[in-house]
Each structure stands twice: as C-alpha cells, then as structure tokens.
Specification:
The chain has 609 residues and is α+β, with helices and mostly antiparallel strands. Strand 7 (388-394) and strand 8 (397-405) form a beta hairpin.
C-alpha cells in the first residue's frame, strides 16, 4: 500500500522565480555553485564523467542543486551542461543497472549512499531518460543489498532513497519498489536513540554517525517518508526530534549546532552549512507528507536567516561552520575551537574544512523556489510567499498565478490569477506564523494557517495580502536573547577588514573570486540590549538582498557596551557568554541588520537595564 503525500511539488519547469528571488538565483548561477564544473576538480574531473577525481557524492550533490537552478532560470547553456553530465552518467550505467563509478570488484566496499543520491538526482531530472535510469539502478540496488547490507553513510541515510523510489513508483506502480523501501528501512539505522540516550543532550566529544549534524538534519523526514508505505505515524517523531535538537543544541537562529557533530547551545560553536540545506529539504518534504504548516515556518526561518548567513553576498565563498556570535572569521592558531573540524572551518572560502558543503550548498535556494507553489486535490497552495509565477492546468484550463512581493523584507503580497476560461479551484494562501496578523482582501486571516479562496476564477483577478510583524526578544540559554521581527532575526553587525588568500592545496587552486578570506574585526562588538523598544525602517531591495552593505530592512535599538571578554583560549573568539554584564558606557542608538545580511555579527546578547 502506498499513501500519497498531502501536497505535491510542481515540475521545475512550471515555476519561474521573480523579483529578489530571481536575483538570488542569478547570483548563485554566476557564483560558485554555478561554476563548479569549470573550476573545481572534484566536479570538473569527477569519476562520474570518466575523470580521476572524487567519484562518490560530490557530483550528485552538485547536480541536486544545479539541475533545478538551470531550469528555474530557463538558461539554455546551463541546461545543456546538466544534460551532458546526466547523459554521461547514464551512458556509463552497467547493463545490470549498477550506476556508480567503480570497478565490479569494488562494488562490495563502495558506500551505497552515492547510489541513493544519484537516483534522487535522476528522479528530479525526470522524463523517461531520468526515470528509466533510476528504475534500473533501483532494481540493481534491490539485489545488491541482499549480499551487501547497508553500512556507514548508506545505513544512516537509507530514507533518502525513498524519495526516488516513490517517484518511480508513482510512474510505474510496480510493487517491488515498495518492497525495496521496506527492506531499506529494515537494514537502515533507526534514530530512536536520539530521544532516549542522555549522551545526545550534551556536545559530542568525538566524531560519530549517530550525532552527525547532517545525518540528523536529513533524519527529520525519515519517519514521515517511511509512513507512506507503512501507514504509521507520519509526523510525531519528526516533531519530537526537532524539539530535542533545538532544546539541547539550538543556538543559530532557528537551527541547531553541529561542528560536525552535535555541539550544544553555545552561540560560538556553529553549524555546518550542509546541515542547513538538508534541514530545509527535510522541512519541505515534511510539509508535503504531513500538511503541517509548522514545517514551512521552520523552512522560512532557515532560508531567510541561516542559509544566506553562511555565504558571501556574491555566493563565490561560503563557511563550513557559521556562528551566531561571530566577531571574527580568522583561522584559530592554537588548535581548533570546533569538535572535529579544522581551525579554518569558519572562514569564507572555496572549501573550508571539507568540500561536501561546496558541492551541496547549491540546493538551498532552488528547492525553496520549487516550494513556492504546491498542488493538492482541488487546488493550488502558495506555500512559501516568495516572488514567483506558476503556469499550470486545472481540468484542462490554463492557469497562471503570479506573486509580487518583497517578503520577508516587506509586509504585503499581491497575487494575480489569470485563467484561459472560467474554472473553479481553491487557492490556498499560507499565512506565516511569524506574522502578528494578516488581512486578505479585507478579511482577517489567522497566522500559522492556510486561508483558502474557493471560487470560480475567470479572466484576471487580483488578491491582496497585508501582514504586520511585532518585535520579540526570544530567550536563549545563559539569560541571553535574540531579536526577532517577523520572519527575520537581527544582529549587531561588526565592521571588518578582509584579507584574501590565494594558494593551491592538494591540486585545488584557490584564486579570486573563489579564494579564501579571513575577516578581522574593526569595530567594537561587546554590546548588550539596553531596551526592549525597537524601531524598524524599510529600504529598497537591492540585487543582492542579503548584503551587509545594503540591507533591505534595518532596526534601531538602544545598546550599551559591557565587559564581554574574549574566549580564554582563542584571541579571535568571544566568550560564549559575558561573565560581567556591568555597563561600561552610556546608552547608544545602534542599527541592527538581518542576520542573513551579516558577515561578522553579534546575535545572542544579554538584556540589561
């Protein structure tokens, strides 16, 4: 038995981003993710296309973001590049369906996680070409795991393979695919220990699969995906697991710490970029399966805050680990502040610490765009209110819906619905829980829910939505706070001096614009909130909206200097919390900017009288 999700994704050719979202995707196409096949050996010369570099997860991870990016932008040259990779990978597929780039004698030792990932990419690519190749690879996988049970990464990420399995099943209705789904669950690791073993409440002291932050970000959707074949609870485990992670390891706004394993709730420990994009995808899938809009609120929190904060505005460089309180990005000199990551994991660069994020970070924005509109029986849902246009058909009638908005920086939405001829359907508009209130064409709508317009649509009809937000100082550990205003968190920006490093290491060249940067602070950072009264000011949205130079919205706050010392061991790191909160200066009016716009920042701070 197969249970369809409550909401489904549209084809990547049905949605076209607009406004600031299109600008973001264009910047990504011009930046690192859009050029890895030209500049990075692990993609350019990968074993997947006959080269001598990495032949495991990096090309599939890159394609997972580059394929939807190219189609969302309708860029023929980019689409041709994706086609060349897909065509080469499929042409190298063995007659028995084995698709990964290794010799026959190496199959038993090859970590099958890469097969899950390339099947997911082929299903995303779609069409008969992609689905046929995925089906052959899944048939081979069904036989392969009889003699080679899941191990290592494959064992802890088994549920990722359910995504292509279900996509192929919806096309073929072949029952062996559901049997494969059940066998993967039987061989795969369960994550029940997360909620029962007290050691996971503490920062991990050594590397492990169980507490690996990316595994855990992926894991959130495991039970919901499995429920589509088992019929079991589809949302209870995910909610408990998310609450656990945020309670014991939450520090970055709306995300959990992991460097690269669970790292507690210190605002200076940081979170791996891979965990942010994988958490976003988990939230998208969780909403699709369960229909619980809380997952879309969490998706917005990650997409509008944690995701852009980990990248430079031009998207040519990124951090492996981002910190909520990041007063410097300078490689540590006395060992590493992080659990298992290198001393330079938090600098901006081509592949700080490790290249997995270099390959994987590109899926974040394109998949958010693919979640802008979703479909369900009888209707269309505006799931994430970002500027985009949907072209689809309902009962054979062409329907076009466009959304003009500056959200999350602005407070209004304008939908324009055009139909070829009269047609009845529901238009659902999700109201973010971060709104104080919302008005849709003069009627109040409840934040955190879906407002449904069920009518006969004819010609061109406009629907207008207006939000308002409220300021909130959210409590954090050690009697500290973070400022939230609607969907955005705000930080005190720290001025910096940037030092560029161009060099070659292990055959990988770093040169402008894909080189490494260290950021040294040039201004004071040791501040505390001195009032709970704030004032917002909106500005024009620039082509690069998440930039510390031209933030689209700012907040005036009253702040005071305090004796916030440096970390005892590392000069370019602030203490996790100040020991002395006595003011050392008069109240000052300071300007805070969105967390996602910052490079150096202080985000989690005390509130003093």
């Amino acid at each position: 038995m197969y249970r369809y999700p409550k909401y489904s994704f549209y084809n990547m050719n049905d949605i076209k981003p607009a406004g600031w979202l299109r600008d973001i995707l264009i910047a990504q196409a011009k930046g690192l993710s859009g050029n890895l096949d030209k500049v990075w050996p692990d993609v350019r010369d990968s074993g997947w296309i006959g080269g001598n570099r990495e032949g495991w997860e990096r090309v599939p991870c890159w394609l997972d973001g580059f394929i939807p990016l190219s189609h969302l932008l309708g860029d023929k040259a980019m689409i041709d590049r994706t086609d060349r990779y897909i065509d080469t990978i499929i042409s190298n597929q063995k007659p028995d369906g084995w698709i990964c780039p290794c010799g026959d004698a190496e199959r038993a030792s090859y970590d099958i996680w890469a097969a899950f990932l390339i099947c997911k990419v082929l299903a995303l690519y779609g069409g008969s070409k992609g689905l046929d190749a995925a089906e052959k690879a899944l048939r081979n996988l069904k036989e392969h795991i009889k003699d080679n049970p899941l191990k290592a990464w494959g064992k802890f990420r088994w549920f990722e393979c359910l995504i292509p399995i279900y996509r192929v099943y919806e096309s073929t209705r072949e029952e062996w695919l559901l049997d494969l789904a059940k066998e993967l669950q039987s061989q795969g690791a369960s994550y029940d220990w997360l909620l029962t073993d007290p050691k996971f409440k503490e920062p991990n002291k050594e590397w492990n699969f169980e507490g690996h932050i990316v595994n855990l970000a992926m894991m959130l959707k495991s039970s919901a995906l499995a429920s589509q074949t088992t019929g079991d609870d589809d949302m209870g485990f995910a909610e408990k697991a998310y609450s656990f992670l945020m309670e014991y390891h939450g520090a970055i706004p709306a995300h959990f710490n992991g460097d690269e394993v669970l790292a507690g709730n210190s605002p200076t420990r940081g979170a791996e970029l891979c965990s942010i994009v994988e958490a976003m995808y988990s939230y998208e899938v969780l909403f699709s399966v369960t229909g619980d809009t809380a997952w879309l609120d969490r998706l917005e929190d990650a997409a509008f805050n944690s995701l852009p904060a980990a990248m430079s505005p031009d998207m040519w460089t990124h951090q492996y680990d981002q910190m909520a309180n990041q007063m410097a990005c300078v490689a540590f000199k006395n060992g590493s502040h992080f659990t298992t990551n290198s001393p330079d994991a938090h600098i901006y660069g081509l592949e700080p610490n490790y290249g997995c994020c270099t390959a994987n970070m590109g899926q974040g924005w394109p998949k958010l765009a693919l979640t802008s509109f979703m479909k369900y029986d009888g209707g269309i849902l505006s799931a994430v209110p970002v500027p985009a246009t949907l072209d689809t058909e309902i009962n054979g009638v062409k329907v076009n819906i466009s959304l003009e908005t500056g959200y999350p920086f602005k407070k209004s939405l304008k939908y324009t619905v055009k139909t070829e001829k009269p047609v009845a359907f529901e238009l659902g508009i999700r109201i973010p829980a971060s709104a104080e209130y919302a008005v849709i064409d003069g009627s109040l709508a409840v934040p955190g829910g879906i407002y449904t317009l069920s009518r006969l649509w004819e010609g061109e009809i406009a629907v207008n939505v207006v939000f308002d937000f409220d300021f909130e100082l959210e409590a954090m550990p050690k009697d500290m706070y973070v400022l939230r205003y609607g969907p955005l968190f705000y930080s005190f920006p720290v001025e910096y001096e940037k030092f560029m490093h161009e060099y070659e290491k292990d055959g990988v060249i770093r040169k402008f614009p894909y080189c490494d940067y260290e950021l040294y602070p040039k201004s004071k950072w040791n501040y505390a909130f001195a009032s709970d009264i704030f004032e917002s000011e909106e500005h024009d949205i620039p082509p690069l909206p998440f930039s510390d130079e031209t933030p689209p919205v700012t907040v005036k706050a009253t702040m005071r200097e305090i004796n916030w010392e440096n970390d005892e061991r590392f000069e370019n790191l602030c203490a996790a919390a100040p020991n002395d909160r006595t003011p050392v200066g008069k109240p000052e009016e300071k300007v805070l900017i969105p967390y996602g716009c910052t490079m150096l920042r202080m985000t989690i701070m005390p509130l003093i009288s």
